[in-house]
Design goal:
This protein has about 130 residues and is of the alpha/beta class. The protein has one domain: 3-Layer(aba) Sandwich (Rossmann fold). About 45% of the residues lie in helices and about 15% in strands. The protein contains 5 helices and 5 strands, in the order E-H-E-H-H-E-H-E-E-H. The longest helix has 17 residues. The chain is globular and about 40 Å long. The relative contact order is 0.19.
Length: about 130
């Protein structure tokens, strides 16, 4: 299965680890954002990345989402608030495109209860499901 891993940018290391494990299980991981150098994330998070660069990243991520069969969404605990939430856009694109969505962790919003979303408590449960 071709999978896209979505998480907030501050969890890139964890997303990269999940991607590596999914590769070990024989899946293709089409997302690449979590493999970028930390300086690229710093520019994005602090708002110093150029509009052209951000457009490039948006187009790249969109194309990768359109190429996937499923989305692995690394959710956050209830009550947590984050300034940047592109992962929700990724979640919505995947759901609207008819891709399988795996919600890893707590259900953060109403769409995580959608019948086309598979809910798992953590990464170990995800790996077992995808084995």
């Amino acid at each position: 299965m071709k999978l896209y891993v979505a998480a907030r940018s501050e969890r890139a290391d964890e997303a990269s680890h999940v991607a590596d494990k999914l590769l070990e299980l024989g899946h293709d991981v089409v997302s690449t954002w979590h493999e970028e150098e930390s300086s690229a994330f710093d520019e994005y998070v602090n708002g110093t990345a150029s509009a052209g660069h951000q457009q490039h990243l948006a187009e790249r991520d969109y194309m990768q989402l359109m190429a996937c069969d499923g989305l692995v969404f690394l959710a956050e605990a209830a009550g947590e608030r984050w300034a940047r939430n592109a992962r929700f856009v990724e979640f919505g694109i995947a759901l609207a495109s008819g891709h399988i969505v795996f919600c890893v962790g707590p259900q953060e919003n109403i769409f995580s209860y959608h019948p086309n979303v598979t809910k798992v408590s953590g990464t170990e449960e995800l790996y077992q499901l995808l084995t």
